């Protein structure tokens, strides 16, 4: 076959990212469940909705939440990959909707590393690479801190080495 | 010349005539409230009126303060604007980052001989803080500024030093004022009277309807005017309600169509009257247009990354199209920049095509043949999988709407004609899906990536491959099953990213690899049927 296809980037993200993604998703679902419970309590006389409808809603939410929290992180972990060569940054991300992003190192404008509160707990960090295009920031999430730091240092060094205003 | 050098280094103020404009603008903006106040009088009004008057007064004072706090200067390297009352802020833009200059004069500005200058840069686009706006300068000053900022002709320093040897060669000398060197500009397009026939098909009159409706509603709410008691309105209503329902609908539609057509045509004439597109020898494109509000936009040609031909359905029906520039420094259709990138107002498609050919920088190796032009070249269709996807998506949305209407009819007592109408429109959805597929297409020709999509608003974008920064290839679960992908070319120009939708994955990779040679190569492998 003479049809070239894109291979996956070389590196996987940290295994801890699975727990991070699960925790992040679980928090979101908990907020929704709490809201539903609050509504059930406030509407205990059943004037707006019968109690059975409330309970049914809670059960549906709980089932979807459990499915999402168990399946999504694993799926995501299989998809998420990254690679940085001296010429380009290449990532693969998503789970249901997957995306490859490629940007040349010569057009990199900024390299940021960020650790949110939840990422701190799991000792993770993410790296965002921006170019002159607002449509193409490349984000590698779920890296362990050392890898993230190394990636930032590496990219900053190579990006500085190339001249031009990158637009 | 020496005088000029000195003034460019001191901080300059905006035109003091703005002190007249600010109060006037605020009063006009508050016109519905004030008019309501006049109509209703003080008898029925309470505290609300006082508040609106106080609000207007405050805005006037703030507007006038803006004049006192804003200064700007142009140094050899930078354009700087100082502004702010409590938080002083200096916005500095390197002069070599200036990509576009937009000079706008509203009616009032013109009466007083003023113009608003907006400077577009490439990099600050993402973070809006970097936008430079000077509201307003005298017209002559604005024109001078435009020339100063964009016409950095290499020949100028030499002539300047021969004229006045004392002038510092690092300070970019003033090019001759715009208009004084007619030989240096070539006209690429000019408004033709017969193009007015496209006016009714632009639908811009819908905005007017909205504005009028807003004005009336504010008049009613703030002026306590009871429309039901106004004589002519009462008469019309009585006449209207005497008709049968179909006749009522027909009347409303007819009135709307006539009103929108007239308003659109008027809007077209006012916005695009005196339209001229010229190319200057210093490497800039210059667009001037407008009868009441005049607009002059200068685009650095070196930064022009491509063009967009847009054909909204109505305009397409009469073989019209409009042309916009895809360039760094002008974001397509956003906020005050709306229409800033326009290269040709709604005009015959052939005119748009020929202007595009004149404007696009010819890429090395491109043949000059008509077929090779990125705006006319044949496009590759996206195949049966993309066609199926158009239909499933169109019918998916339609089915959802239909289901929602049915449910509302069943449980919430919505009148049955709603879902009956929705069901009757099913064939129309098929037409839409088919047309959306027909629009889909892409090509890679003479150094340009060409992509076309859309039905209600069909767009065709030709993007210079040199302007492509990177690629995003997106595949949803369903796209993966159909072996399709949505390829986005990211760029610093225009909308920042242009998509080739639902294209075969292999073709997407071929496009990306050919568009940016070498970038993808390390990541490509021979296919072994990857699922």
Number of domains of chain B: 3
* Name of the CATH homologous superfamily of the largest domain in chain A: Pleckstrin-homology domain (PH domain)/Phosphotyrosine-binding domain (PTB)
The count of domains of chain A is: 2
Task: Report Rg of chain B.
Answer: 28 Å
* Mean residue pLDDT of chain A: 88
| Neighbour order of strands in the largest sheet of chain B | 7-6-5-11-10-9-8
Keywords (chain A): Membrane, Transmembrane, Transmembrane helix
InterPro entries (chain A): YdbS-like_PH
Domain YdbS-like PH (chain A): 77-153
Protein name (chain A): PH domain-containing protein
Could you characterize the architecture of this molecule?
Chain A: This is PH domain-containing protein. Chain A: InterPro entries: YdbS-like_PH. The complex is a heterodimer of chains A (167) and B (531). Chain A has 167 residues and is of the alpha+beta class. In chain A, 46% of the residues lie in helices and 27% in strands. Chain A has four helices and eight strands; from the N terminus they run ββααββββαββα. The radius of gyration of chain A is 21 Å and the shape is elongated. In chain A, 27% of the residues are buried. With 531 residues, chain B is α+β, with helices and mostly antiparallel strands. Chain B folds into three domains: 2-180, no CATH class; 194-272, no CATH class; 383-522, PH-domain like (Roll), CATH 2.30.29. Helix content of chain B is 42%, strand content 25%. In chain B, the strands form four sheets. A seven-stranded antiparallel β-sheet of chain B has the order 7-6-5-11-10-9-8, sandwiched between helices. A six-stranded antiparallel β-sheet of chain B has the order 14-13-12-17-16-15. A four-stranded antiparallel β-sheet of chain B has the order 1-2-3-4. Chain B is globular, with a radius of gyration of 28 Å. Mean pLDDT of chain B is 80; it is low at 1-7, 153-182 and 332-337. Strand 5 (98-104) of chain A pairs antiparallel with strand 18 (468-475) of chain B, so a sheet runs across the interface.
